[in-house]
Design a protein that fits this description.
about 5% strand, 4 strands, two-stranded antiparallel sheet, two-stranded antiparallel ribbon, mainly alpha, elongated, Hypothetical Protein Ta1238, Chain: A
C-alpha cells in the first residue's frame, strides 16, 4: 500500500506548518499561503486556456515563483530565511513583461470592466485573487517579519495580470468594456 493523501491530522481544524508547528487553519499564515495557492490554481487555468507561447511561458514562470512564495509563507521563523522566495530581480522581470505588453497597447483613457472573452476574465480573476493574496500577506506581516519583496512581487503581479488581460483582449481582437458611470 502506498502513500495516502488523507492523514486525518487536520480533522480537528488544525494543520502543520513546515517544521511541524500546529496552528488553526484560519491562522494568518495559512490564509496567506492558501490564497497564494488559490492564485496559483487560477494561473494554471489561465495558462492551460491560452496557446500563445508569449503568454504561456511567463505564466509557467509565475506559477513556479508562486510555489516558492507559498513555501516561504508556510515556513515560520529562521527556517524561512533559507528559502529564496523573491528577489529584486523577480520584480524587475515582471516589470519588463508589463512594459513589453504595454508597448503594444493603446493608452488607457477609461476604467474598464472585466470581461469580453473568457481568457480576459480569467486574467482578471487572477488579478483580483492576487490582490487578496497581497492583503493576506500584509495582514501576516503585521505580526511576523516577512520578506518585503514578497509583498512588492504580489503588488506588481496584480498589475501584470491587469495588463495581461488587456493584451489577451488585443490578441483575440476583443474590445475593452468601458465602465460608464450611471447618472
Amino acid at each position: 500500500m502506498g502513500f495516502k493523501i488523507y492523514t486525518k491530522t487536520g480533522d480537528s481544524g488544525k494543520t502543520s506548518l513546515f517544521g511541524g508547528k500546529r496552528v488553526y487553519k484560519d491562522n494568518d499564515r495559512i490564509e496567506a499561503y492558501g490564497t497564494v495557492d488559490e492564485l496559483n490554481s487560477f494561473v494554471g487555468l489561465l495558462r492551460d486556456s491560452l496557446k500563445e507561447e508569449k503568454f504561456v511561458a511567463p505564466l509557467a514562470a509565475i506559477q513556479n515563483k508562486l510555489f516558492d512564495i507559498g513555501s516561504y509563507l508556510a515556513t515560520p521563523g529562521q527556517k524561512a530565511t533559507e528559502i529564496s522566495a523573491v528577489k529584486e530581480a523577480n520584480i524587475s522581470w515582471l516589470e519588463d513583461r508589463i512594459d513589453e505588453m504595454e508597448s503594444d497597447l493603446t493608452q488607457l483613457a477609461n476604467f474598464i470592466l472585466p470581461g469580453g472573452h473568457p481568457f480576459v476574465s480569467y486574467a482578471h480573476i487572477c488579478r483580483t485573487v492576487c490582490r487578496r493574496a497581497e492583503r493576506r500577506v500584509v495582514s501576516l506581516a503585521q505580526d511576523t517579519e516577512i520578506n518585503p519583496f514578497v509583498i512588492r512581487y504580489l503588488n506588481r503581479l496584480s498589475d501584470y495580470f491587469f495588463v495581461l488581460a488587456r493584451s489577451i483582449g488585443r490578441q483575440y481582437e476583443v474590445g475593452e468594456i468601458k465602465w460608464t458611470k450611471e447618472t
